[in-house]
Amino acid sequence: MGVLKRFEQRLEGLVNGTFAKVFKSEVQPVEIAGALQRECDNNATIWNRDRTVVPNDFVVELSAPDFERLSPYSGQLGDELSGMVRDYAKQQRYTFMGTIKVHLEKADDLDTGLYRVRSRTLASSESQDQHGRPAAGPRTSSGAPTSGAGYPPQPAGAPPMPSTPPPGARPQPRAGGPGPGAVPGAQTRRWIEINGTRHQISRPTLVLGRSTEADVRIDDPGVSRRHCEIRVGTPATIQDLGSTNGIVVDGQHTTRATLRDGSRIVVGSTTIVYRQAEG
């Protein structure tokens, strides 16, 4: 059984089914859990042959309405999400520099149903400043540094993360493309998964929509006839085709986005998972 499936099952009876009620908006616990998994994958740093370090402190930003609804349960949800990250790290043989923590925060710039994830790697002794805030600088879900989020610079004496792997370490490929050591000329296989059904992407563009003329037909009243289009490239991208309800990619409303392995695309009430692999 997968880590995300076990996570969902643990939540089913939590607080007498409270979570089943408070998560009726677009934000679902499994989507947040999946985003935390991607944070680990995308920010993994190989220190040596036996140690790959991943972030251990996460901030999940929610819209004001979602935050107000979930804040009474933030402690239990944070514990469950932390447990999920621990299980996933064990499965992937990742290690941490400190205690795993997941915090919920309010973000006034997010609409209801959207969320944003930031992560950082903190040593146990430096995990909090005098205000209880994480001490290292934040990173966005894409791994790009951010500023102005109320986090002070990393304090003196905190063990730095290496900018390059130690001598002899093999760089780890990033999700969504081959890394150093990839076989030259290797073909990238791409596909999408919808409700457990796999659809191969064997052409430069793949149109998704409710029309029978779409390359992949989605029977969902919230999906337009020609809703969006996946374009194969380096990297692959998705483009909204002027749909009525738009697209959400990895928790963000957008008209165009870069796709990486594991990206979650929401159209109407349907979730699509983009996958790619070498060979």
UniProtKB/TrEMBL annotation:
The keyword Phosphoprotein applies. Residues 206-254 form the FHA domain. Keywords: Phosphoprotein. PROSITE patterns: FHA_DOMAIN (PS50006). SUPFAM superfamilies: SMAD/FHA domain. Gene3D superfamilies: 2.60.200.20, FhaA, phosphopeptide-binding domain (DUF3662) (3.30.2320.60). It comes from the Bacteria. CDD domains: FHA (cd00060). InterPro entries: Cell_Proc_Reg/RNA_Proc, FHA_dom, FhaA_N, FhaA_N_sf, SMAD_FHA_dom_sf. Residues 152-170 have a biased composition (Pro residues). The keyword Phosphoprotein applies. Transmembrane segments: none annotated. Residues 121-186 are annotated as: Disordered. It holds the Pfam family FhaA_N. This is FHA domain-containing protein.
